[in-house]
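Task: complex structure prediction.
Instruction: return structure tokens for all chains below.
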Amino acid sequence: MTPGTVYLASGMALIVIGIACAVLKRNLLRMVLGFAILDTGVHLFIAAMGYLPGRTAPIADEANMFSDAVTMTLDSTRFVDPVPQALVLTAIVIGVGVTALMLAYVVRLHAREGTLDVGAFRRLKW
Amino acid sequence: MIGRVVTVAVLVGLAVVSWQIVAGGTPAELGDVSRHYVERGVIENRASTLVTSVVVNYRGLDTLGEVAVLFLSVSGVAFVLRRFHGEPSAPPTPSSEIVRTGARLLVGPMLLFGIYIFVHGHLTPGGGFQGGAVIASAVLLLLLAERDRPLPHAFLSWLESTSGAGFVIVGLVGLAVVGSFLANRGVAGLGEWNRLFSAGVIPIVYTLTGLKVGSELATLLDIMMRGERKEGGR
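Output:
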């Protein structure tokens, strides 16, 4: 099992745990936590998609990383994929915003109904 | 009960399918787009951190959308948690001497560290969002230490909107000068590789992003801790 597979498997495990938590729990706070775990799993999975064994982080801070020092062309066989990392950077910020919004709704619902049990909110049920 | 069984069955199915994806493993080589970004990133942007060069330059428009989503979610929280008339606010418990003294000691260095992170976004791991988050955690410490001190809402609101507008203006300058939104080459001097004053507009955009994210998250924390105030202006 290569490290890349371990990262992918951990990400997928976190995704399944997060979905299970969000779907099976009845407490609203735990459902929000489930979504947060799902978020983390997706981030780990996407970042692992760009993992290439034996390569370094995509930061060119040494002169010997150039394959052509005159034109400053970087040696592309030395770095992992920067695109998934950029995607995860975006996804983390969006995840924080969505979690904050969900928590705000939970606070409002608790103030209104006095409970966090999702079964108690029957107004939209048919 | 039957719903629970069905849910668990679906989750097990999901786990089996995902195992097929995982067994495929990670790719062995960079894709074409990634290889272009890696090989030409330093030539085109002079930014040492290739992730920054993707986030701020190649996919800068996505970052503008991301900033907009963060703004919308903070506005949403402010709207949902606004205080209704006659609803009393719980009196804050005063924090201990240790927290207050520690906060006084730590808030300055934490703010400075956040600014360091977003100013060096093109040289080291980090950037506007990370620096903004560090600044917001300094504000959280301040809020925890002195529960009754009001944040300067007018200033935060001004800072947030000015830096957001600055981001768009930098993009429009690129559109006017070079002909593409958020262009880097030809707009500002790229400078020398691996220096603080280099990489063209990338440090400018990341500084603006850091200020915007920091002020937004600070407002968010303040709303969550004690509800929207009348002078909040939002």
